[in-house]
UniProtKB/TrEMBL annotation:
Organism for this UniProt entry: Echinops telfairi (Lesser hedgehog tenrec)
Recorded family membership: Belongs to the short-chain dehydrogenases/reductases (SDR) family.
Catalysed transformations (reactions): a secondary alcohol + NADP(+) = a ketone + NADPH + H(+)
Encoding gene per record: CBR3
Chief place of localization: cytoplasm
Entry EC no(s): 1.1.1.184
Protein's UniProt name: Carbonyl reductase (NADPH)
Subcellular location: Cytoplasm
Keywords: Cytoplasm, NADP, Oxidoreductase, Phosphoprotein
Length: 277
């Protein structure tokens, strides 16, 4: 591969929304598409399935909970492509509604993957995003709902335009800590681990976009969070009202924003429309 080849990467892409996003990028992105998955066997099976449809993604193993795995993928992208054009951070987890796991464990595990691991991916891969690159962080309106259910002073902190990434990390850690001490409700937190994890992703996206503007304004990289909607997947089960193809529409739209686009940037987008939150 030459370093001038274009490349798009989708994490958690062996099934569900990630798989549907990968399929659409294979059809419409001018360059290679890398399907990344934690389980190599399932990832390769997903690649084979797309090959039967006449599509040709590449596979690379990625466990976003493993910093070494993230760095190995970063090195592969640098070596093969000299960087990255499109990053879709889709990998994530959710506990079922009736899961008996104690809430503090759910909070720790959900934030570990959905927020902290996604942040680690961004820490390694954002520096190698090429000019006119596109970054899409899969979030959820459940994050906006969690924000509304936070105590007012916490809402102000999350909405603050000068909140730093380190400040956000401290807030996320405090939420987990308060669930362990069984004081999260008293401290003004909502009782949704998934919602809090996605609030973190949305706010992280706003901060990352500001940082890109401060450091790489001329590169015109666009970074956004999006809500794919309540999609029928292993995660949502039969509660979902949308197909995975419908869920993929907004992430793909953001991933393929034309080179001369200047917005949206640092926004939460649903159904291709910027959301107020």
């Amino acid at each position: 591969m030459s370093s001038c080849s274009r490349v798009a990467l989708v994490t958690g892409a062996n099934k569900g929304i990630g798989f549907a996003i990968t399929r659409e990028l294979c059809r419409h992105f001018s360059g290679d598409v890398v399907l990344a998955a934690r389980d190599a066997e399932r990832g390769r099976a997903a690649v084979q399935q797309l090959q039967t449809e006449g599509l040709n993604p590449r596979f690379h193993q990625l466990d976003i909970d493993d910093p070494q795995s993230i760095r190995a993928l970063r090195d592969f992208l640098r070596r093969e492509y000299g960087g990255l054009n499109v990053l879709v951070n889709n990998a994530g987890i959710a506990f079922k509604f009736d899961d008996p796991t104690p809430f503090d464990i759910q909070a720790e595990m959900t934030l570990k993957t959905n927020f902290f691991a996604t942040r680690n991916v961004c820490t390694e891969l954002l520096p190698i995003i090429k000019p006119h690159g596109r970054v899409v962080n899969i979030s959820s309106l459940q994050g906006s709902k969690a924000l509304e259910n936070c105590r007012e002073d916490l809402q102000e902190k999350f909405r603050c335009e000068t909140l730093t990434e380190e400040d956000l990390v401290d807030l996320m850690k405090k939420f987990v800590e308060d669930t362990k001490n069984e004081v999260h409700e008293r401290e003004g937190w909502p009782s949704s681990a998934y919602g809090m994890s996605k609030l973190g992703v949305t706010v992280l996206s706003r901060i990352q976009a500001r940082n890109l503007d401060a450091k790489r304004k001329a590169d015109r990289i666009l970074l956004n969070a999006c809500c794919p909607g309540w999609v029928k997947t292993d995660m949502a089960g039969d509660y979902g009202s949308r197909t995975v193809e419908e869920g993929a529409e907004t992430p793909v739209y953001l991933a393929l924003l034309p080179p001369d686009a200047t917005e949206p940037h640092g926004q939460l987008v649903r159904d291709k429309v910027v959301q107020n939150w």
